[in-house]
Each structure stands twice: as structure tokens, then as C-alpha cells.
Amino acid sequence: MRKVIIDTDTATDDAIAIIMALKHNNFDVKAITTVAGNVDLEQATQNALYTVELCNKNIPVYKGSSGPIKRKLETSKFFHGKDGLGDTGPYIPKLKEQKENAINKIVSLINANPNEIEIIAIGPLTNIAKVFDKDPSTINKLKSLYIMGGIGEGKGNITHHAEFNFWVDPDAADVVLNSNIKIHLIAWDTTQIYGYINKENFEELEKINSSLSQFSIDIQQKALQYYKIKYNEYKVDLADPLAMAAFIDSKIVTEYKNCEIKMILNGLKRGKDIVSFTKKGNIKLASKISREKFLNTLKKSLV
Ligand code: RIB
Ligand code: CA
């Protein structure tokens, strides 16, 4: 069993990614840690607890950072809704979060399980940067670190220059990406090519006809409206589920490119990840992904 930590700013696509992880039979999810991003920390934590409950699991949820390292929090409620789950709730969990702080829990889990813990970060990297700052030895004790973030070889979604997770906390992204740890990075560019669901895919999800598939359809409706109005397209980009699919099954990514990344921290290009391809780079940027295998992994998780 793989020992896994999911770090998340739990909104619509995070919730689907969490379902994928909790339904995967080879994961021993040690902790879900929350971070402010799409919504504030309290809401992200509540959404994570609700999603765990929906999967009939009892995975411990730990609260982490309530805002970026240096900046004030800017959410994406315009897209994910005030509650982060498309405002189709209320989604009120019975489960309660753990008392221990997320950063302390991640540090203790890594130190208690050297070279066994795998982290997938699907929100701003504030918590991960604080873990590395609190105990730098954890950098060399992690088995793997998968990240959803950045524009890769494409353009941004929150500004032309930047993807939301890296834009919210560019300072944390800079710390983590330049900590010399080995990273698998699934950026916004591949999400737009391989990680979207369209009308046909929504119809396939309808046919699954389970509580999880219906929940995943319901919470995407606000995002779908946003795409229809802004781009006149019947589609939603599922960035976190694509990253989770790559984390679940490494064969889904058919090409990674080694790179180093320089982060722009301020100004018009705040949050921009400037990618330089080099064999000695510590970051593997996903560049080709099987859309068919992604969709199959997604649908299998929602049964
Ligand atoms: O840019 C996409 C990322 O930002 C996803 O993680 C989504 O949940 C938002 O956090
Ligand atoms: Ca997210």
C-alpha cells in the first residue's frame, strides 16, 4: 500500500480528486491536509470532511495555512462558488477535523515513515513550503511529491501569465520548486489538452448513476456555466483529477520533460513559472498524458 498525504484547497475539482484517491485500493491515505486557496481554510476543511464522509471513509483531516506566506488570500469563489462546491449544497459534514496542525502532522508522518510518504499537492503550496522550512530534513525523506500547478508550456487561467495555485502563493511555489526535491508536475497546459470533460463525458458520468457521480456532476454546474458564458463551450477543466490520475497510475503520463523553474513573485507576471528544460532538472513536467486512461480512471472512481 502506498502511504499518501493529500494537500488540498478543497473546491470542486479537488473534491473529485479526493474521491479518486479514497476509492483507490492501493492507497493508505494517512492524512488530508487543507490550505486556503479556492476558498478560505475553514471552508476548504469543511469540504474535505464532507468529501471523506461521502466516500464512507474516516481519513483524518488536518487544518493548515489560512493564507499565503507573504500575500493576502485571494480566492476563486467566482468560479467554484461561495462554498467552493458550486453552491449546490449545503454540504455539511458530521466528521470533525483533527486538533493537530497540518504542518506538524506532515513533518511527523514523514519522519516516522522515511522514504515511504508520497504527497500530492493540489492547492497553493503554502503548507508544503512551511513543512520544508520547519524541518528541511523532510525534503530528502519524501518518497515522491506530485504537484498540480503552473502553466507549464501554456498560458495561465487566473491571469494570462499564471495558473491559480502558483499565483495565490508564488513565494511558497518558489520555495518548493527550488528546494531541489524531485517533483512530478502536472500543469494547466496539459489540463486543457487532456484533463477536461465535455458534454459527452458528462453524459457518461450521468450513466454511472451513483451518489458519487451525481455529486461530481452537481458541484461542476457553476463551473460549467462559467465556461459556457465566458468561452461558449460545454466543458470543465479538471486539473486536480488529472494530477490525481497521474499520481494513481504513472503509466497515464506518456511523456515527462525534465526542467528547472524560475518563479516570478511580483508584478504583472506574478505567479508565472518560467520553465527551462534541462536533463539535470529536479522537476518532471508532464507533457503528454493519455486522455482515455484519465477518463477511465475518473469514471472507475465514481462508481
Ligand atoms: O488552476 C487550477 C488549480 O487551482 C486547481 O487546483 C483548482 O482546484 C484550483 O485550486
Ligand atoms: Ca485545488
Write up this protein.
The chain is an alpha/beta fold and 303 residues long. It has one domain: Ribonucleoside hydrolase-like (Inosine-uridine Nucleoside N-ribohydrolase, Chain A, Alpha-Beta Complex). 39% of the residues lie in helices and 20% in strands. The chain has helices at residues 12-22, 41-54, 77-80, 102-112, 126-134, 164-168, 170-177, 188-194, 199-208, 211-218, 221-231, 239-248, 291-301; strands spanning 2-8, 27-34, 61-63, 117-121, 144-148, 183-186, 196-198, 235-237, 253-263, 273-277, 283-289. The strands form two sheets. Strands 3-2-1-4-5-6-11-9-10 form a nine-stranded mixed sheet, sandwiched between helices. β1, α1 (12-22) and β2 form a beta-alpha-beta unit. It is globular and about 45 Å long. It starts with a strand and ends with a helix. The model has no long low-confidence stretch (mean pLDDT 98). It binds alpha-D-ribofuranose and calcium ion. The site of alpha-D-ribofuranose (RIB) has 16 residues, from α1, α6 and α12.
Shape type? globular
Low-confidence stretches: none
Radius of gyration: 17 Å
What would CATH call the architecture? Alpha-Beta Complex
**In total, how many beta strands?**
11
- Helix/sheet category: alpha/beta
How are the strands ordered across the major sheet?
3-2-1-4-5-6-11-9-10
Elements, N to C (H/E): EHEHEHHEHEHHEHEHHHEHEEEH
Strand content: 15-25%
Provide the list of bound ligands, each named once: alpha-D-ribofuranose, calcium ion
Number of H/I helices: 13
The CATH topology corresponds to Inosine-uridine Nucleoside N-ribohydrolase, Chain A
Quaternary structure type: single chain
Q: Major beta sheet, specifics?
A: 9 strands, mixed
